[in-house]
């Protein structure tokens, strides 16, 4: 992420400080090492998508807030890339629109988001399986799925083709 990694680290530190959460407490709540969190906050470590998701929950913020709501922000891990297309913030909720590219056979797991968060996925190309709670649904190109994202969930790109999808995450205020 280069320079954007520094901005993300500064944003995480600011959010943590605003909420009065110690470095140790946030690291424990997010399930990451205190040293790793310190390096992220000081810009010496670039965040992975797993780390950002892990931090967003305990901080009680949408993922987009960690990239300071900058359209075009890219967050990637091996076999997975997401680009923030748009963020809509109202008094009731924050809605994030992300373009996803998931390699064939890759599974993207996410911890539970804050209470009341809902995700929707519109598959543009390829196919995927979405799993949440005790539910599982398969979605082909042109299809749509919605699920409560305040429980652990995951989606897997099915078949031999890359999954391309639009993911909309709605976080109530």
Automatic annotation (TrEMBL):
InterPro entries assigned: Cro/C1-type_HTH, Cupin_2, Lambda_DNA-bd_dom_sf, RmlC-like_jellyroll, RmlC_Cupin_sf, TransReg_Diox_bact_type
Domain HTH cro/C1-type: from-to ranges: 12-66
Signal peptide (from-to): none
Stored Pfam families: Cupin_2, HTH_3
Top-level taxonomic group: Bacteria
TM stretches of this protein: none
Keywords per UniProt: DNA-binding
Protein name according to UniProt: Helix-turn-helix domain-containing protein
Annotated organism of origin: Nocardioides hankookensis
């Amino acid at each position: 992420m280069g320079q954007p990694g520094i901005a993300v680290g500064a944003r995480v530190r600011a959010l943590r400080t605003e909420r009065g959460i110690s470095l140790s407490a946030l690291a424990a709540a997010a399930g990451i090492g205190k040293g790793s969190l310190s390096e992220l906050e000081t810009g010496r470590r670039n965040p992975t998508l797993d780390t950002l998701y892990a931090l967003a929950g305990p901080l009680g913020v949408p993922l987009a807030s960690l990239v300071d709501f900058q359209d075009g922000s890219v967050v990637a891990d091996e076999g997975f890339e997401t680009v923030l297309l748009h963020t809509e913030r109202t008094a009731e909720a924050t809605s994030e629109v992300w373009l996803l590219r998931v390699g064939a056979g890759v599974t993207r797991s996410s911890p539970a988001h804050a209470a009341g968060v809902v995700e929707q996925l519109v598959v543009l190309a390829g196919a995927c399986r979405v799993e949440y709670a005790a539910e599982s649904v398969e979605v082909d190109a042109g299809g749509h799925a919605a699920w409560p994202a305040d429980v652990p969930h995951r989606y897997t790109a099915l078949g031999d083709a890359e999954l391309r999808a639009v993911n909309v995450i709605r976080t109530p205020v």
